[in-house]
Amino acid sequence: MRHLFFLISGLFFVTALTAQSEYSIESLYKLIKRESIHRMEVDWDKVDQAFRGQLMKAKTRNDSMRAFVTIFKEMKDPHSSIYCEAGTIAFFNPVDEATFDRLTPMMNRSNSEMGRVKTAFLENKYAYIQVPGFFARAEMVDSLAQMISDSISRFDPKKTKGFIIDLRLNKGGSLYPMLSGLGALLGDGPIGGETGVDDKVVRSWAIENGNFVQQGTPQSSIRHACGDAFVKKPVVILTGPITISSGALVAVAFKGRKKTRIIGEPTGEGYTTSNGWFKLGPRLILNLASAYVSDRDGHIYRNNVTPDETVIGGDNFNNPDKDAKVAAAIKWLR
Length: 334
Hints:
2-enoyl-CoA Hydratase, Chain A, domain 1; 2 domains; nine-stranded antiparallel sheet; 10 helices; 17 strands
């Protein structure tokens, strides 16, 4: 078995902030047990025993920090991580050799195309937009969201019969510019939210005036040049196994939208969570999965997003005209 190492450094939600010069192993462990969205899904007696066993073997503090991999593994949580002097502490879903060989080129391509939106006009009818992941500091959100919006607005509303939004190379980053940029297609209104262990919504999502709003707070301030010309156009969302993190959350935001279909492969397992960013010291940060996400109809996504129509393989990112998933999208749009 091999591990596909997903580099998730763009965190979408800041849910906590604590500053200390020192933070004990025990305190970090208690924080994870208290805040993880997976905390009700594991046998903590078993986890305690496995974790203590790893600590007994540790010779240095870095060795002790690496013991936290055991916790993430027991929680089946590939979306949480710890950044510290020992490096990045995380658990990654194992895959077989064939899957590793198929997905590695896609991961490499995803890494090289971060932040680069690509468009095409297929059959002189259908707008194709590849939306990659975005690593965005707060001051970058508006400019990146505007870039996505402008890629939509460049199409002629009279000639465009539908949209294909390709998320197959989107391995996450900042959710805010993605949803605000796609607000021209999502339209104003609720689009989902985040839920706690009791399945109740802890943060709502909406589009207002074309911008993404989280729990009533606008996360951007852009203007869509196309206005609402495309709000009622049919949309196909393409997904794949490296559509993860906020890439998968974008797919969730389109769930329940009228005239919308998700085509492709299931998104990566274990990445449909929003994460808290806990700064615990100058060289210690915890990125913890702290809520699940739900769509506008209240359905909670605890593991991944399953497409409405499954198309395995056939990806051709160099030529969308010869891509099996794009062909399925066009067939539905017709």
